[in-house]
Amino acid sequence: MNSEARREETDTLIAALRSSFAKLGERPSLVVAFSGGGDSSALLHVLATLRKASGFDLHAIHVNHGLHADAGRWQQQCHNFAEQLGVAFTSIAVEVKETGDGLEAAARDARYAALFDNTQPDDIIVLAHHRDDQAETVLLRLLRGSGSAGLGAMQPWSERSGRRLWRPWLQQPRSAIDAYCERHAIEHVHDPANRDPRHLRSRLRQQVMPLLRELSPSADAALGQSAALLREDAERLLRLDRANLATIQGLDPETLSVQALLRLENAEQRAAIRCFLAERGAPSMPARVMAQLDDLLDVDRSAEPLLQWAGMSLRRYRDLLYLCPIDDAANDLPSTGWNGQRPFNWPNGWQLAFDPPPSTTLQLRVAPREGGERIQLIGKSHSQDLNKLLQEAGIPPWERSRLPLLWLDADDGPQLLAVADLFRSESLQKLEASHGIRFRCEPHRSR
Does one domain contain both 103 and 138? Predict the structure, then answer.
């Protein structure tokens, strides 16, 4: 490529930034994720050049993963470069812990967490990903079996953990960035991890992408275009999934109707459930678990089926599916004495209290259900089986064991006063009247 062509290519980097300034808002605060590599160094250099004329605040954050012997030197090099540009600089040291997805993924997660923890909601985090990165991401996700949402790869604008992310150079080639660094004599960090064959992305970059470019010189652009089209498809499908989700939710939006789900095609069922999980911030359901969905929907109503994954479960009771965290501690709740003087927090999320507190201490006890309990409800002449009452109220079996039962340890034996906020007894009504108090039981945190 001749010098004039290289100059034109580097000019497109500046133009790509300027064309998006209108989306930034008034006096935006830009935070560059600054690794010190050529891509982020060029990005910081361009933004520092445009800062005064364009009226935005600029800050650079360097995340030191501590994974290389030269990490400290790279941090100092980044600091010096930002100082030369007159850009505020912050360095954050993180500890990278592998979680089973590989060191590269663990480092990425630690990096994003550091960026989110050290920025403000109004900040815009600017990332130097380019067209070559996008092509590699599409190939990676193809190899992982991703659907259209995953294959849509990176977006120019996105939001994560309450932060706006901006990738202005997704349509710009790496060659333009290299040319910019050469033109402006920008010295930058060369991290050997980027060429480490242990990382799948590195092997794609060094072995697969050169071959694809031989077969088709426009391979990067074509993969990027496919990602954009798939992103459009994913957005359209998401609108349909949300519309389907609205038709299958129970009266409680945290539940799904089995009968309504069965009216959808298999692919629509699975898409609606993925949408349901995503909107609640739940981990996505692996394909091996999703494959068991038919059993969950078709099982006999008298059973208590469930699917489990990543600390979550999808349970069925009657015609409804419930999303529940797996809480082993819920099966080992204590029986605890309580004098009623102060609010009592039940371990799995209920608070019991009297308003106002009784003037004398009471001989009360809060305990889980053990089975066989009976309660005489207000206005009833005889006691009733608690389990039957819970069934009639439609309380799922796994929730019944989590409910706090309030007992009065009377001289003539224990009396069941109340069951959470569901049932109140004649004995409780008399206790309230004699002490001028009112019992309440309500969630004190998300259950």
Answer: yes
Residues 337 and 321 in one domain: no
CB neighbours of 292 closer than 8 A, spacing ≥ 6? 307
- The answer to whether the CB of 428 falls within 8 A of the CB of 394 is no
CB 200 within 8 A of CB 153: no
Residues 152, 13 within the same domain: yes
Q: Is 185 exposed, middle or buried (0-12, 13-18, 19+ CB in 10 A)?
A: exposed
- What interhelical angle do 219-248 and 266-279 show, nearest 10? 90
H or E stretch at 275 = helix 266-279
191 and 150 fall within a common domain: yes
Interhelix angle 174-183/38-54, rounded to 10 degrees, is 70
CB 223 within 8 A of CB 216: no
How many independent structural domains does the chain possess?
Answer: 3
- What the block records as the tokens of 218 is 């426009």
206 sits in which H/E element: none
Secondary structure of residue 369 in the 3-state scheme: coil
pLDDT reading at 446 higher than 70: no
Boundaries of domain holding 383: 330-443
Asked whether residue 261 falls in the same domain as residue 128, the answer is no
Token pair listed for 347: 């371990």
Contacts of 133 (CB under 8 A, 6+ apart): 154, 170, 174
Cis peptide before 347 (omega within 30 of 0): no
Q: Are 319 and 258 in contact (CB under 8 A)?
A: yes
Is there a single domain that holds both residue 321 and residue 334?
Answer: no
- Give the containing element (helix H, strand E) for 355: strand 350-355
pLDDT digits (tens, 9 = 90+) for 144-191: 888 888 899 999 999 998 999 999 999 999 999 999 999 999 999 988
Task: Answer for the pair 169, 178: CB distance below 8 angstroms, yes or no.
Answer: no
d(CA 303, CA 319): 12
User: Would residue 100 count as lying in a domain?
Assistant: yes
* The model's pTM: 0.69
